[in-house]
Amino acid sequence: MSRREELAERLAVVEERIDAACAAAGRPREDVTLVVVTKTYPASDVELLAGLGVSDVGENRHPEAGDKAEEVRADLRWHFVGGLQTNKAGAVSRYADVVQSLDRVKLARSLSRGAQAAGREVGVMIQVDFDGTDPGRAGTAPDDVSALADVAAELPGLRLDGLMTVAPLGVDPRPVFDRLAGLAERVRADHPGARALSAGMSEDFEDAVAAGATHLRIGRAVLGERPVLG
Ligand SMILES: *Cc1c(COP(=O)(O)O)cnc(C)c1O
């Protein structure tokens, strides 16, 4: 089987699962965007996915993400989904259409400066960490979300799209996704345009759809197991 056929097959299975999850939740399929997380996979896979109808891809590291965004010819939306150092924000804002991992004011300011310098608008989602036990984990505490949303919404060059979370390992993700949805509702009261809810990965995206996710970040279910953990 060619790589194209393999990706087509896996993508079709994922699409079927998304259709079924939307039907079960009584939600229109168009409300949910599949972001295929292509980290560690080559640019050639990204091109194949674009040819198969994928519109959004996700990457979690700079410069890997930037190199791929430059190499890939297809017109795609690039989502940056990884922890981001402030000193790399300028570079990332030149190619990312959306940064889903905004978790602090300093990073928001750097992304804003970078977006303005590049003459672009960068969408941002605030990454929320509901775990709180691991200081190394990316994400802002739930209590800090609304202040960060206010800052991001005001900064030139940024567009506040919504919220994102990565469910902690080894716990039932559904209550986490429900908390994210509740928090997002409060953010929308002040920022009606912040409608995105990015939740759900290969293992748990049905739960995310049930909780109202608008963006699913799916890697392995489409691309196969990663040879090296990304
Ligand atoms: C890698 C990654 C994903 C995709 O994970 P899979 O288990 O491969 O589906 C989603 N979100 C983030 C932030 C990631 O780093």
TrEMBL record:
Domain annotation Alanine racemase N-terminal: ranges: 17-227
Superkingdom, taxonomy of origin: Bacteria
Name recorded for this polypeptide: Pyridoxal phosphate homeostasis protein
Family annotation (InterPro entries): Ala_racemase_N, PLP-binding_barrel, PyrdxlP_homeostasis
The keyword Hydrolase appears for this protein: no
Alphabetized Pfam families for the sequence: Ala_racemase_N
Key words of the record: Pyridoxal phosphate
Record carries keyword Kinase: no
Function (record text): Pyridoxal 5'-phosphate (PLP)-binding protein, which is involved in PLP homeostasis.
Family: Belongs to the pyridoxal phosphate-binding protein YggS/PROSC family.
Entry-annotated residues carrying N6-(pyridoxal phosphate)lysine: K39
